[in-house]
Amino acid sequence: MPHITTCSRCPRAVQDEIPxxxxxIEDEDGQPHEVCPDCVTPAxxxxxxxxxxxxxxxxxxPKEEWLTFIAERQGLQLGKSPQPDPAAVDYGTYxxxxxxxxxxxxxxxxx
Length: 111
Ligand SMILES: [Zn+2]
Known about the structure:
This protein folds into 2 domains: about 5-60, no CATH class; about 65-105, no CATH class. Helices cover about 25% and strands about 25% of the residues. It has 2 helices and 7 strands, in the order ββββααβββ. The protein has helices at about 40-60, 65-75; strands at about 5, 15, 25, 30-35, 75-80, 95-100, 105.
């Protein structure tokens, strides 16, 4: 007995594996609904694409490492603010300083 998946918005149905161009969209209750390509709205399609882009960016270009790399090439150093208080304005911020002079070039103090 083959497994049949039906589009939640039209009578279209597929057997067994759901094709790649179908999307699984969660409703307000978090219940997944299979939706065929004809029924996926452009906004929904774009949301999925953006999710995929975010994942690629996270995997291939960790921001902190990249900034450190760029800074070092210019004789600068990227440092994190030593501020331990989450309520402070410079908490979790970064600063760029000259390695030789230890002078702050941009951002907040780096300790
Ligand atoms: Zn459909």
